[in-house]
Amino acid sequence: MSITVVDYKAGNLTSVMNALRHIGVDAKVSDDAEEIAKATRLIFPGVGAAASAMETLTRTGIGEAIRMVVKAGNPVLGICIGCQIILEESEEDGGVKTLGLLPGKAVRFKDEPGLKIPHMGWNQVNFTREHPIMKGIRSGCDFYYVHSYFPQVPAEYSFAETTYGTQTFSGLIGNGNLVASQFHQEKSGEVGLAMLKNFCEWKV
């Protein structure tokens, strides 16, 4: 099995590739829209700002290539900003139209006394609905987060929740062959590796 990892100059791909190698998965990094469009299994990671990410995705054609992979019914995993960009819009950078692959938008944490933004570090992820990439993973495990914005989606597209301060948000979202996490599987130790393995073995 081969995994294509999208390179749109918005993230640390090394940790993703190292995690995939650790679980024995053959993967390649690509910034070529034509190659990405033909992917049979795609990981769409990233960190950074929505506006610059969307500018790159639009200019290079990678955004449309990701849409094509989703439309083809092949498994797609978004991570961090890859979770936010699949929504319809983001509040970041004054408001940005994003890929529109799932209904919803990325919203910023509200300021609270003593609450540090970005949300950075380990936090508990509570599963609210079953999904194949959760197989064998206990609800309530800690995963690693680094973000100031989070996905706000209708309940039927949310599979897990995390609470930060008084705010509860979706940590895992998806529909059909598309799934995305706000947390970083590749930085989340054994549970993160188990979830990546489940994605790689997921038969949609």
What does this structure look like?
The protein is 26% helix and 31% strand. It is α/β, with parallel strands linked by helices and 204 residues long. It has one domain: Class I glutamine amidotransferase (GATase) domain (Rossmann fold, 3-Layer(aba) Sandwich), CATH 3.40.50.880. The strands form three sheets. Strands 2-1-3-4-14-13-12-9 form an eight-stranded mixed sheet, with helices on both faces. The chain has a four-stranded mixed sheet with strand order 6-5-7-11, covered by helices on one side. A hairpin with a 5-residue loop joins strand 5 (89-90) and strand 6 (96-97). The longest helix is centred in the C-terminal third of the chain and has 13 residues, at 189-201. It is globular, with a radius of gyration of 15 Å.
Annotate the secondary structure layout.
Elements: E1 2-6, H1 13-22, E2 26-30, H2 33-37, E3 42-44, H3 50-60, H4 62-71, E4 76-79, H5 81-84, E5 89-90, E6 96-97, E7 105-108, E8 119-124, E9 126-127, E10 142-147, E11 149-152, E12 158-164, E13 167-175, E14 178-181, H6 189-201
Parallel strand pairs: 1-2, 1-3, 3-4, 4-14, 5-7
Antiparallel strand pairs: 5-6, 7-11, 8-10, 9-12, 12-13, 13-14
